[in-house]
Amino acid sequence: MMVKNSIWKIFYILSIAAILLLVALLYFSYKEINERHCTQVEYYTQIVAKSIEADFMQKDMLLSIVGERLFREYSSNSNEKIQKIFALLLKHNPYLVSIGLADVNGQLLIASKNVEKKDINFMQSDNTRYDFQRSLSSSYMVVSKTYYFDSIDEWIIPLRKAIRDDDGNIIGVIVAGLKNSKNSNYLDELNLSKNKRIIILKDIDDRGDIYKLYYSQQEHSHKDLYEKPIKKEFLSRIKESFYSKYEYPIEELRETQKTVSFFLNNSLLGHNIAGLIYNKKYKLWISVGGDAQGIKKEFFKEASFHITMSILTFIILFILFRRVAASERKKDEELLHQIEHDTLTNLPNRIYMYQNIEKYKELHNDKYFILYLDLDNFKNINDKFGHITGDAILVEVANRLNIFFNKEDMIVRQGGDEFIVFVGNIDRQELEIKIQKLIVYISKIYHVKKRDFRAGVSIGISECPRDAQNIEELLSLADTAMYQAKKIRNSYCFFSEEMRTQNAFRADVEHELRGALEARELWMAYQPQINADETLCGVEALVRWQNKKLGLIPPDKFIYVAEESGLMKELGEFIIETSLREIKEVQKELNLTFNLSINISVVQLMEAGFLSTLLSAIAKENFNRSSLTLEITESLSIESLDDVLPILYDIQEHDIKISLDDFGTGYSSLSILRELPIDELKIDKSFIDKILYDESEKNLVDSIINIGKNFNMKTLAEGVESIEQIDLLRKSKCDVFQGYYYSKPLSKEDLIKYLKKDN
Ligand code: C2E
Ligand code: CA
Ligand code: CA
Q1: Where are the domains of the chain?
Q2: Phi-psi group of 34: left, alpha or beta (phi > 0 → left; psi -120 to 50 → alpha; rest → beta)
Q3: Which residues are in the CB-under-5-Å shell of ion ligand 3?
Q4: Does the beta carbon of 574 lie inside 6 Å of ligand 1?
Q5: CA distance 743 to 751
Q6: pLDDT digits 0-9 by tens, 223-234
Q7: Whose CA is nearest to atom 12 of ligand 1?
Q8: Which of 263, 616, 682, 688 is the most exposed, having the fewest neighbouring CB atoms within 10 Å of its CB?
Q9: Do the Cβ atoms of 715 and 708 come closer than 8 Å?
């Protein structure tokens, strides 16, 4: 999950970076487009301004030359000649619509014939006075404000040029009008720039007004365009736009004559871009500009390209990341599966169990059973036929469990040949039936590598919440119940309260047992074994434990505890040493040789160095080895047959006898009997108990005795309590008898007394 998150984190970071990049890209492309358009418009403005200035200078020069000539003619009173020149001028300059001469006081002296009204004084009219005065103080031609010249019924751009004599004194002023009618303006003819809007403004006059001189786009009427000055608020808007870009007042342009450009929004022009330059000679503002909508369009085109590309990249990136995330998630899930599952059987393991137990409990309202399964005979198969076979059987067991249980049941491989199953939604009776079926199913033949195997199963069951709530406790209780079932094998056992007390007792036993040897609480008892001819055969050594807290504890209640808690080695050595020493002492005292049988648990037998310890104990007591028998319990010897067998042979080689204890209760087959180096069969008390009244049991004992005879083994009947039993067994040719009929297990002292009395 973590990997997945970090991948998406990278994706988000990349996305944010990409968005920022896009924004920057858009910003710079917007700036670049704007700047390009500004440079362009400034360039146009420069060209247009140059053309206009060149044209005005040409007119300026023309007026100077013509003016000098005309005033000379005027002073010589040759009006006719003047008119001729006027006519010639108008003819050759189609855009020159009127021409005349004025004196320094503004009085029109003479005008071209087309001017109807001749009595004009430029100094008297408010419209003309300022510019006329200006012409008197300027060495350049003065371009005046466009107006409707009613005498010739024409909109004109008036031109004034003062004419001076050689001393520089003004002789008079030549006045002329440039045609500025709709669709016919000499500036149109200059063909300055198509598609661009050219505006020429006359600089501020004595009233603080700025008038248009020329406006290239003629959609408005002349009256609207030229009659009124430009609105103050519009001017201040221009000033603001300019200032916001250049951060100095627009007025400075009058001196610097720089070409500038800026954007402005205007009800008349819309969103506009304008280049601007000031012409100092003729005091004109020249602006070339146009609709800025094109810029927007260009930007939107470019932006939509960038955005489309970005979206495409984003989509590709998203798909890519989703793929990566999906594969990472898959990897994660696989990894998690690996962690939470057993590699061999692919069943959930304990990690999975602990991860999912809460979910499971919730799902079943805390009502469920835990089945603790342990295969019987598995170790044997594993040891005998190898791990590959063992593994194949485990896989098949897992398979059968999967088939047998529902999806909601949780099957866990606990390890080795142990499995745990959580079963819910079922009552005790139903479960019992189910488990009986399961045992049959698991016990069915396993077919591996062309061989058939059988493996039983022992099942312990605990119930939540009846037995416990805590999962660990429930598992431990199921385990306890399983041990109980193991005693029978291929069976099941529900946990019971009795087991809990047993468990507590077991814990007490273990605790007390640790100090028992040192506290000298243990001692040995000896039970005589009597030959069929009533002579003494030997004694069986049986351990006894008298504890302060627990009282007298029978050996079958603490031997297994010693085995399970690692105390058996010490205990075993005590038993061997004590029995050998004491019996040797008895034999010496009574001058009698007889056999000693010592019980050896399989755990003890398999401990490293068992035989050498035994041999050195024998040597220490100088005990006759051929008078020693080791009793090994039949049931246990099966599972670990392969481990036990070499030790048994070793023991036999040292002239020590081996007796198979509790014979008949385990699983020994004849083939096993043949393999084992056994000297004696001890027929279990449970058979002896029944021989007097149960015919089949009697037959069984007979056949055991026969087997013993066939294999050249002694047979010993355990737990004989009556003479009738002995008579019957004697007839069946049983060799030795041991039981309360002869004697209970006796302390060393009592044994001496018993033996003395007997002899
Ligand atoms: P086991 O080896 O089968 O020992 C025989 C048990 O039967 C003894 O019980 C003995 O007291 C009892 N018994 C003998 N004759 C009669 C009879 O006529 N009637 C009745 N009711 N019982 C009789 P014990 O001493 O309690 O031993 C129980 C088991 O504990 C033994 O069974 C043996 O498996 C184990 N055990 C005892 N001492 C030792 C020991 O020193 N080492 C080991 N490893 N196990 C021992
Ligand atoms: Ca025994
Ligand atoms: Ca026995």
Answers
A1: 41-293, 350-495, 514-758
A2: alpha
A3: 661-662, 718
A4: no
A5: 9
A6: 888 888 988 888
A7: 719
A8: 616
A9: yes
Q: Where are the alpha helices (DSSP H) in 547-694?
A: 555-564, 568-590, 602-606, 610-621, 634-639, 641-653, 670-675, 685-688
Could you report the per-residue pLDDT of 199-209, keeping only the tens digit for each? 899 999 888 89
Region of poorest pLDDT, from 503-517, 670-684, 733-747 = 670-684
Instruction: Indicate which residue's Cα is closest to atom 20 of ligand 1.
Output: 719
Give residue 536's pLDDT: 96
Residues 681/704, Cβ–Cβ less than 8 Å: yes
Please tell me the CATH code under which domain 350-495 is placed.
3.30.70.270
Q: What is the mean pLDDT of residues 319-347?
A: 92
34 is written with which tokens?
A: 């704007």
Distances (CA, A) of 177 to 148, 253, 515, 582: 10, 28, 138, 157
Tokens 């020493």 belong to which residue?
581
The average pLDDT across 180-201 equals 70
Strand partners, 266: 270
Question: Cα(191)–Cα(97) distance, rounded to whole angstroms?
Answer: 20
What are the backbone angles phi and psi of residue 589, rounded to the nearest 5°?
-60, -40
Output the residue whose Cα is nearest ligand 1's atom 11. 745
Identify the helix (H) or strand (E) that includes residue 197.
strand 197-202
Rounded to two decimals, the pTM is 0.54
Q: Which residues pair with 424 in a beta bridge?
A: 368
What's residue 603's pLDDT?
Answer: 85
For residues 276-293, average pLDDT: 90
In the predicted model, is pLDDT for residue 312 greater than 50?
Answer: yes
Residue 711: Cβ within 10 Å count: 14
State phi, psi for 659 to the nearest 5 degrees. -120, 135
HSE on the CB side for 550, CA within 13 Å?
Answer: 23
CA gap 124, 674 in Å, rounded: 155
Look at ligand 1, atom 38, and give the residue with the nearest C-alpha: 542
Strands (E), 434-476: 446-448, 451-453, 457-464
Given CATH 3.20.20.450, say whether it is the number of domain 514-758: yes
**Beta partners for residue 421, in sequence order:** 371, 411
Tokens of residue 175, six digits: 């006045």
Ligand 1 pocket: which of 527, 539, 542, 744 to mutate (most atoms <8 Å of CB)?
Answer: 542
CATH for 41-293, among 3.30.450.20, 3.40.720.10, 3.20.20.70, 3.20.20.140?
3.30.450.20
How would residue 637 be classed by pLDDT, with cut points 50, 70 and 90? very low
Q: Are 704 and 715 within 8 A, CB to CB?
A: yes
Question: For residue 10, is pLDDT > 70?
Answer: yes
700 vs 138: CA distance, rounded Å? 153
- The length of the chain is 759
CA–CA separation, 267 and 257 (whole Å): 28
